[in-house]
Amino acid sequence: MRQSQPARAAVRTVLGDIPAAELGVCDAHDHLFFRSPQLPGQELDDPEAATQELCAFRELGGQAVVQWSPFGTARRTDALPQVSRDAGVHIVAATGLHQAAHCAPGVLERVTHRLAELFVAELTEGVRRDEDPDGPAEPVRAGLIKVAGAFHGLDAHARQVMTAAAEAHHATGAPIAVHHELGTAPLDVLDLLCGRLAVPPTSVVLGHLNRSPDLRVQREAAESGAFLAFDGPSRANHATDWRLFDSLVTLAASGHADQVLIGADTTTAAARAASGGGPGMPFLLRVLRPRIVRELGEEVANAFFVANPARAFAVEWR
């Protein structure tokens, strides 16, 4: 297993920076608040429902959630601090920008000419309201930069956003988390971020890799040193549950257990366990973690849920 982050490295939560060792059992990719034109009528916009979901996760031992909702997706950073306090769970918020199709109308026109500036400000000063990027900062700082690739490649929008994210990383040290459309193009992302843009692979989290269960590509991505996020349980159409353990076992056997992250990626109200029918956040600890223990052992399960996220999201902030 890799060594832990230096003692001064901190995870930036919505209630302030905490030592990496205090993050605890972590859902490494999820959404408490999220709105997309692609998901009409399924908005996550209810603080009470978010708190209920977090409490259900906490009752099973959950201690932290990383929200990957970036600028322009109604991430409700105004509500996150109170939700965190009420549930007793650490929350990490995101800056960054999703695919153009997921952004609220008018967002791109207001911010694409100064993305790096926006990302740095939200990481160091405080996030802006999605509808008013020039307004006063909320008393919440982002702890990661969310970006997104395209299907089987990188379009012009993805390259522009990733270039700005790399600039913001170099200015702050913040990790970059990547949405891969249907799990594709992780090697293209690594070529751009870690090759041309010189972002250290250990500061990159590749998301949704379970949606394209190509074991050779996953292993090649792991060999770069990046973190690999497997998220979205019980989405059978995305090959999540029934192929997940092929990936986890292969990566562990190849010596990459210390790079795997697990998340629920709850993007719709219907997917919540506490109020929508599930599986939601609790599924990670109620179902997946015991299966991981049976298949790979307690040490590996602890790496996936505790040690790895503590390293992936801890930064010596600049």
TrEMBL record:
The modification N6-carboxylysine is found at K146. InterPro entries: Metal_Hydrolase, Phosphotriesterase. Keywords: Hydrolase, Metal-binding. Belongs to the metallo-dependent hydrolases superfamily. Phosphotriesterase family. This is Phosphotriesterase. It comes from Streptomyces silvisoli.
